[in-house]
Amino acid sequence: QVQLVESGGGLVQAGGSLRLSCAPSRGTFSVYSVYVMGWFRQAPGKEREFVARIRWGSGTTSYADSVKGRFTISRDNAKKTMYLQMNSLKPEDTAVYYCAVDLQGFANRDVTEYDYWGQGTQVTVSS
Predict the structure, then answer these.
(1) Which residues of 3-42 are buried (b: 16+ CB within 10 A; e: fewer)?
(2) What is the pLDDT of residue 96?
(3) Which residues of 74-88 are buried (b: 16+ CB within 10 A; e: fewer)?
(4) pLDDT in tens, 54-110
(5) How many Cα atoms are found within 13 Å in the side-chain-facing hemisphere of 123?
(6) pLDDT recorded at residue 12
(7) Dihedral (C-alpha) 60, 65, 70, 72: value to the nearest 10 degrees?
(8) In the 3-class helix/strand/coil scheme, how is 13-46 assigned residue by residue?
(9) What backbone torsions phi and psi does residue 47 show, to the nearest 5 degrees?
(10) For residue 59, with 0-12 CB atoms within 10 Å meaning exposed, 13-18 middle and 19 or more buried, which class applies?
(11) What's the confidence (pLDDT) of residue 114?
(12) Which residues contact 91 (CB under 8 A, 6 or more apart)?
């Protein structure tokens, strides 16, 4: 069983920046060399939506159009930690942000493709 923990959320003014982190608090998936990790978000009354994902081995990334050019997903292999650098934040970025992992290495943008999820961290952007 893998547990993921997100951190770094908070309240920021529009135009500001935040960096989210995600790391396993229990369990390990380091034996899986092809896993994928992703960031999703869910605003009140809306469905959970894809933000970005990274293939751990190759480092290739993919972004939702709404965040492309403003957000950057990255990983630190030694720390087994994934990051989401969020710049030029907008009020519409306000949501609970979740990290997730797919141990099979095939996941892309669909929430059903991911095996384990964190509890989420709140990001609030004021106008």
Answers:
(1) ebebebbeebeeeeebebbbbbeeeebeebeebbbbbbbe
(2) 98
(3) ebeeeeebbbbebee
(4) 998 889 999 999 999 999 999 998 888 999 999 999 999 999 999 999 988 888 999
(5) 31
(6) 98
(7) -20
(8) ECCCCEEEEEEEEECCCCCCCCCEEEEEEECCCC
(9) -80, 155
(10) exposed
(11) 95
(12) 14, 125, 126, 127
Per-residue pLDDT at 28:
66
Q: Which amino acid is at 105?
A: G
Q: Longest Cα pair distance anywhere in the chain, in angstroms?
A: 44
* pLDDT of res. 93: 98
Give, in order, the Cα–Cα distances in Å from 120 to each of 4, 38, 98: 9, 12, 4
